[in-house]
Amino acid sequence: MRAAIRAVAFDLDGTLVDSVADLMHASNALLAELGRPPVDLPSVRSFVGDGAAKLVERVLAATGGVPAPDEAARCVERFLEIYEADPSANSVLYPGVAETLEALAAAGLRLGVCTNKPMAATLRLLDDLGIAGRFAAVVGGDSYPTRKPSPEPVLGLLDRLGVRPEETVFVGDNEHDVAAARAAGVARVLVVPYGYTRVPLESLPHDGVLDRFADLTGRLSC
Ligand SMILES: O=C(O)COP(=O)(O)O
Ligand SMILES: [Mg+2]
């Protein structure tokens, strides 16, 4: 018999929040300080998903090249300083997210976030958008030695939520979410079609596409 679903784990960027405008803003503030040209929204969108250090590396590669490791590390630090100061000025929840989280929490489900975004910026963003209180646990890209597509942060999140993988549905937007959740052994992996995926969703081993985020409430029973 299949275990009943007791928890839902969510990816953040591209799944719950359209955050790319603020990531672009922080990237361009860094580039201006370096005397480099700005990057545009579609480029930044394609750079998101592997955490802040990779995002900055891709931004630098696209605007004149990646500097030596020390200098690149300073760029990541400066980017985070700028981004963490205001990660939500132009970021919005996708349609249906606030209502659906409220309905799931009211139904007694344990909700969690597993993102590759560093924790400090993640907590500030969730707080600014008014949904921090919905989550019983949050795991960021710097919470464990590895990030998604490793299953480690997913398993860490489930541990903090006090649920087993077979009692959990994971909702994400890209190939790292599907790989990490599958490797963690969750009951079901659902994907949203509006996020920042770099590969076609139909090529990924997920269990279904949520055409509307609100459809999630109907997809949690067997
Ligand atoms: O790459 C990031 O910083 C965040 O990405 P995620 O929330 O989609 O995991
Ligand atoms: Mg994502």
CATH-assigned fold name of the largest domain: Rossmann fold
Order of secondary-structure elements: EEHHHHEHEHEHEHE
* pLDDT < 50 stretches: none
Shape annotation: elongated
Strand order of the largest sheet: 5-4-1-6-7
Determine the CATH superfamily of the largest domain: HAD superfamily/HAD-like
Protein name: Phosphoglycolate phosphatase
InterPro entries: HAD-like_hydrolase_sf, HAD-like_sf, HAD-SF_hydro_IA, HAD-SF_hydro_IIIA, HAD_2, HAD_sf, PGP-like_dom2, PGPase_prok
Active site: 11 (nucleophile)
Pfam family, one: HAD_2
Structure description:
- By secondary structure, this protein is an alpha/beta fold.
- It folds into 2 domains: 7-18 and 90-219, 3-Layer(aba) Sandwich (Rossmann fold); 20-85, Orthogonal Bundle (DNA polymerase, domain 1), CATH 1.10.150.240.
- Helices cover 40% and strands 11% of the residues.
- The chain contains 8 helices and 7 strands.
- The strands form 2 sheets. Strands 5-4-1-6-7 form a 5-stranded parallel β-sheet, sandwiched between helices. Strands 2-3 form a two-stranded antiparallel ribbon.
- Helix 1 (20-33) crosses helix 4 (69-85) and helix 3 packs across helix 4 (69-85).
- Bound molecules: 2-phosphoglycolic acid (PGA) and magnesium ion.
